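I hope you will forgive my troubling you with a question about protein structure. I am sending you one protein, given as its amino acid sequence and as whole-number tokens for its backbone shapes. Thank you for your consideration; the sequence and its tokens are set out here:
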Amino acid sequence: MNASTGAPLTTTTSGGKQGTGGAPPGTAPPTGPARGRELLLLLSRYGTLVGLVLMLAVFSWTADSFLSGSNVANVLKASAAMGVVSIGLTIVLVLGDFDLSIGYTATAAGMLAAGTAQTYGMAGGTAAALGFGLAVGVVNGLVVTRLGVSAFITTLGVGQIIAGWLLAYRDGVQVSGDLPPDFTTLGRGGVGPVPYLVILGSWWPWRRTSCWSARWSAAGCTPSAATRSRPGCPASTTSAPG
């Protein structure tokens, strides 16, 4: 308030906008609809984590042994393989597509690795699994990007082809016995209670903060959004492919 005239004091921002004394312009608390949007945004980002914490709390309350070391180790071992597979699917989802053949591919790669390892050892089994997964990915990618077929149709069809191959491979009999010790150690072993597959999947925090992550996000969204979310990355890294 101006003491001589009684008029309220005005302030001018760098953009030329004027505001009356007190709090600067643009700092008003959000209204009801804005609060609702903020809440939905928080739930979309952290809803899964909140649900996980709630489930842990409920199961810990109903079962005394739920958080015991042995039970935690069993849960980690049971979910480790699916966690590693979900990493690849997450990349596809970030890029704005999806893959219905990933479950078939993981199963077939596991059987092929075990069958090959019986003859060619750990190195041969690993190379066979990686090569099979790479081949399926290349086929899916080329059909979707070059031929313009929907990812839903492509990956569904490829998944059915792999399912048929699984029935023909070794006459559908499960691979067991005569596996190299180092092969079984990779799947069942770990560092203390933590399985090796969980350690392999622990790269998620790195992916969240890397420039590669920004490039994937740019491909699935917009370059400007990816650049703002990763301000430390060079512009060439966060540009969406043409």
User: Anything to note?
Assistant: The CA atoms of residues 166 and 225 lie 42 Å apart. Residues 6-23, 236-242 have pLDDT under 50 and may be disordered. Residues 102-145 form the longest helix (44 residues).
